[in-house]
Amino acid sequence: MTRSKLTEDRLRRWYRLVQPAMTDFDCGQLCAPDNDGVPACCDEEWTVPLLFREEYKYHRQRSRFWRRYPRRTPEQRAEANEFDSRHDWACLCSGPAKCERNKRALVCYLYPFMPLVNGKGKVLGMTFIHGEASKCPLIDRPGWTPPTDYVRGSIAYWEEVFEIFPDEQAVFVDLSRKARRRYRRLGRPVPLFTGEPR
Ligand code: SF4
Ligand code: SF4
Fold this sequence. Notes:
- The strands form 2 sheets. A 3-stranded antiparallel sheet has the order 1-3-2. Strands 4-5 form a two-stranded antiparallel sheet.
- The protein has 7 helices and 5 strands.
- The chain has one domain (3-186).
- It is an alpha+beta fold.
- The chain has helices at residues 8-17, 28-31, 53-60, 74-83, 106-110, 148-164, 167-186, and strands at residues 50-52, 67-68, 88-92, 113-117, 123-128.
- Residues 27-28, 30-31, 39-41, 111-112, 136-138 line the site of one iron/sulfur cluster.
């Protein structure tokens, strides 16, 4: 399928799916105090949001809040090329002080979760993203479970993403294998949120 499958209507629907709140408190207060007052997932020192190309254009038609990752020097171009993918562009926002909910990218609502998929790419539920840059204190936070409506919306979102961009499934098959390996090493099951009441 081609990029044009991601229509504005579809984007709007995806934004609706990710609207349920992930926490009933301001989770930025957990991480910002240890990160110079900036929520860790909004700190461009260590995170580079990826926006679908159509999503970036959608925002740019409305404001200058988002911009493409700089590509002025050969180093920046190399870095940006590393982040960019077939469907996404590496971008930078104007920062938390100017952030409004309707200006956020899909990735802002979805972090710190990713879909856990089986070997065929079927979504089993949501689990935490891990990586060198993951400084989010919600990851593996004892006793914390994301709300069911948030999880259900995220699952529905990813199912649609895989329908539109089937090649994205392979990325998450690989990431899911890594997640299983990681938790096996830790001696516990992969946290899996399915949207079913517990
Ligand atoms: S999602 Fe995680 S990193 Fe982002 S503001 Fe909340 S606690 Fe901080
Ligand atoms: S748009 Fe808002 S939530 Fe998203 S990275 Fe920027 S400041 Fe953070």
